[in-house]
Design a protein that fits this description.
The chain is of the alpha+beta class. It has three domains: about 230 residues, Deoxyribonuclease I, Chain A (4-Layer Sandwich), CATH 3.60.10.10; about 120 residues, no CATH class; about 120 residues, no CATH class. The protein contains 13 helices and 24 strands. The strands form seven sheets. Strands 3-4-2-1-16-15-11 form a seven-stranded mixed sheet. Helix 11 packs antiparallel against helix 12. The longest helix has 29 residues. It is flat. This is Reverse transcriptase. It comes from Coffea arabica.
Length: about 500
Amino acid sequence: MIKALFWNVRGVDNAFTIAQLRKLKRMYKIFLLALCEPKVGRVRLDIIRRKLGFPQAVSNEESRLWVMFDHDFSCDLLAASSQFLALRVTHSAFRSSFVAVFVHASCVAHECEVLWHQLVGVCPIGGPVIVLGDFNVITGANEKKGGRPFCARESDSFLGFVEDADLTDLGFTGSQFTWCNNCWGRARVWKRLDRVFVNQEWLNLAVTTSVAHLSRVASDHSPLLVSCSIAVGWVPTSFRFLDVWRSHPEFQSVVRQAWEGEGEGRPIKVLLRKLKAVKQALRRWNKEVFRNIFDRVREHEAKVSALECSLEEGPSEEGLYQLVQAQDELKQSLLTEAAFWRQKSCLRWLREGDANSKFFHAQVKQRRARSCIHWVKDGDGVWTEEAGRIEDLAVAFFEAEVLSRRLNELPRVSRFVPFLVSRNSPPLTHLVYANDIIVFCNGGKRSLGCVWEVLQGYQEVSGQLVNVAKSCFLVGKKTSVAHRRIIAHVTGFCPRSLPVTYLGCLLFGGR
């Protein structure tokens, strides 16, 4: 993973800021660092660069923007002004070079107008483009808290630049705002002034890009952490039901035949087998009969072109009939393609046939860029960004959720007698934390049987097993020896007595 940091540091040549930058570089393994408003001349650039451990650096003439980078990067200056710095960046992890534009917009409106005009000329240079920095503008009332009300006219020219340059805001994780005036009481104002944009060519790269707003320290702006994860290897795709399948005359018969397959066992397992059979049947049918939507469009276009050429050479009534039929097939294929992109882009306000392919592609790519999960907090409150660890945490969460819901349904079972803390209290069935769980019931044979049925069903569906060796049961002091033996026989657990330690906490009886 490649990480870059942008920060409006508001003065870099002091011990506290240098220490914070070193900490961020070490903590997040930063390969490229962009700073604006260093408030020192270019003569100090090399000194600060060496203090931070970067071998190379570049800045604009006014020394308002500094960019420091590692040996793995090659950065060539493309264009620069007092408000932006554009570099052609090359890195071995990217399949092609890209343009990185670092921005520090002025607070003066007419100077910003000049900047937007300049950036529109820089972005279409070619290839992937990423634009990041302090734009000194907000785009909506949700990007501001405190101060005077938001006026839409303030962002018109900026939004026009974003549209003209065909840029997409990558969104963010972390705090909603990136700037604060640090005043007290009603005079305090928060805004989201710093952001990251990319163009459509960047979204076409096999790169997952995320943006995180870090804590504000030593400046009134939050640092922006930009993480680029290069896609490596093959990842299985999830099953997606396509609305266009329903337009095919064979669709219902395929689903009915797969659903009516024989099934024996518990109802939930029969349902799961039927759903799996339908999914496999639809995948096979889609590949063999429905085929690739885009291949069908290309085939029908080629067929129409060939028939048109044939009619130009020698007109015939049969050839004209074949051309009309081929055009009708092409029209149906194009409508199917439009419906496919309409579903992928999640837009319901356009009718089929009104599709603009570029527009739909852009909507799908924007949704894909923002729908990725980049950070997850585990049960210990620690954030992780490793893909494998995120997968494990997601699986563990939903497995625990399934078991928790099944246990919560036990009080509605007639054979189950719930555990009550007091006479009028709601029934307490269980407490769950990660892979550990405490189940509460009255200890009767029927109640234990209900609990054990839930646990056995969970083991069959999830593939996880109850660790009998690490499990135990606790009962009251007045419980008879015979009753203890019944519990041990049903569960296979060993008895223990209070007090016991669970997840570092001491559990004991009484008040």
